Amino acid sequence: MKAEIISTGTELLLGQITDTNSPYLASELPLLGIDLYWITHVGDNQKRIVEVLQRAWGRSDIIIVTGGLGPTEGDITRESIADMLGEKMKVDPELVENLRSLFRKLGIEMPQRNIKQANLIPSACAIPNTQGTAPGWWVEREGKIIIALPGPPRELQRMWEKEVKPKLSRKLSGEVIISRIIKTAGIPEAKVDEMVSPLCSSTNPTLALYAKFDGIHLRLTAKAAQKAKAEEMIAAAELRLKSILGDAIWGYDNDILESLVGDMLREKKLTLATMESCTGGLLASTITDVPGSSDYFKGGLVAYTAEMKIAFDVDAALLARKGTIDPEVAAAMAKTARLRMKADIGIGITGIAGPDAVEGKPVGTVHIAIDAGKRKSSFSATYPPRRADVKRRAVVSALFKLRQLLLKM
Amino acid sequence: MKAEIISTGTELLLGQITDTNSPYLASELPLLGIDLYWITHVGDNQKRIVEVLQRAWGRSDIIIVTGGLGPTEGDITRESIADMLGEKMKVDPELVENLRSLFRKLGIEMPQRNIKQANLIPSACAIPNTQGTAPGWWVEREGKIIIALPGPPRELQRMWEKEVKPKLSRKLSGEVIISRIIKTAGIPEAKVDEMVSPLCSSTNPTLALYAKFDGIHLRLTAKAAQKAKAEEMIAAAELRLKSILGDAIWGYDNDILESLVGDMLREKKLTLATMESCTGGLLASTITDVPGSSDYFKGGLVAYTAEMKIAFDVDAALLARKGTIDPEVAAAMAKTARLRMKADIGIGITGIAGPDAVEGKPVGTVHIAIDAGKRKSSFSATYPPRRADVKRRAVVSALFKLRQLLLKM
Asked: What architecture is domain A176-252?
């Protein structure tokens, strides 16, 4: 099955917004055994949209069009599909009633222009939209399928997940492609590459590496006639990767480091507190991105100056002796966080996010310490000197080191 | 001038990475008076890349190809351009020498496979890459231009900025398109839309609205033969928007709220401290995303539980009486932050990021208070109940309210 995606919207061609729908859909299609060959962005111009649709109709089995389903004059996806197929649009009374009742619930009278969203052609049926006013279109003709989805990512993802994906998977048969992502941290990309090289030459499953902000991800992709067979192939390759990478693996697929660490803290009934300097609150904010983090996260201190570190009880003599960018200071901060906030574990981070060097130490220098009373752990690194990256990578390292400590507790 | 972008890379079609190069280039092209009509993503398959190149060659004046310039077998952009144009590639001795000296600097012998990056065709000249090994290609033939740029965004942006943009602008003349983005906060999209509707029907300059996480952005775009004329048109429209939107406008173009507020604090020689509950450190982290924020930001407290709020000196009786989700508690937190960290201004935020309601109040409830001693300000809102959005919107509101207070100081 050959698929292509057509993203409509002049905003895309002006660089005003980034298309996140295509990557989302692109990552979903392989699981249905569908190969994606092209993604085309085209502006809100009917002649050009029809041209692109025509080409897609000639070369692809499944065409997914995103955007252009709104009520305004600039929304011309429906018109373009009708035009390309030479079919005539007609307002569907049932869809009009759906729209009217939607507006009624919002306590607003339906604007006249929204009626346009109730149009259909003979080959199309509507796909319900629970998140907005724009129904999608499912078009079938000559063994080909066109799926038109609304542009807002929340509406698109919900419609895909609840309506389109089940319908497509019922429709299709044949080869299934399954992917598994294995997430590591603490080992540089080149080293991971070298370690897993025996698996890199395999063509089924294939292995690919991606450097992400939360470490190196490895993607296994297997293709088979049956889902069970593909899963078996993935499982065997995964077992080999586990034996090679061991503890450097922290998660799989949609796993998020802060959630996994949070689960471990909750399970072990341990509480956490932080004291941050160069990361400026990003560690606390990342920890509290996880719903339910109040179960284990007590609080955080952001001490952005030496004066504030002292005010929060870090030993002034230590700071005078060592400066603020020092492993011992990180350890003192971790201990202070633990004691002051009566937590089981404290994390301290000090370093230089940049752009200027501090105390003669280079931008990117970071010292992290974890203090769990008897058990302690520390880590120092020099990251590439870009402020946002230094903050982000320091937070990932702190969480990864916390995970390693928790594994031993 | 009609341009199109061809993004190569199978990762894009698997949804493994999001193409940020196309939005970047798309936002740059209008400033050169170039209209972008198409963006196509295509996998690392020479037949399909050649097909896409052929179509582009037939319909566009400028074709920008991104990715596929690396040293591996999968990097086939050079080969595909040569193939499409029917020209033969030849290794350029000077480029080989450049590569060798680059590797010499890194203390590594150049791998044999990198020689492929020194290939040229008769119509191409190399574009220097100061950030990596892959030179770009500048191809001119039959009045058309093909520009091949490396995939890594840092390399691409640098090459665009330093090499391609100046060369293109020297080359081109004719109409110039200029855009100006005006950023507002504090007024809902529908209301902004209504307020600026008199300007919406204009076709030159055009006005478009975008709802962003930091408020509603308005984009003015003007087209004229001369840059000065286009700028004049933008300036006139901007003046009208200013008289309509007043204080709701907080910035322009690349302005970032936290940087602007930081500049105001620095200029007024005022210091800031924060105490956060539901935003969990995101306010402090956002403030410290700005280089040099240590000039005015003293520190932050993240009190994620009532117990921690009391430990940080928020009145226990107040908490017992009002609960934690209350405007008075926000005010007490702001005051505590200011006094405890000896800052001129304190900000307090309490609320419910979700997913569960607290104290019978709905998810999305947020109370923000700013305490500058005599001057105080407070703000309450109920945001759509999505955890990440609640955190982000609360931070934007806090910074926007701080800006409003600073304007009066």
From this structure: 2-Layer Sandwich (3.30)
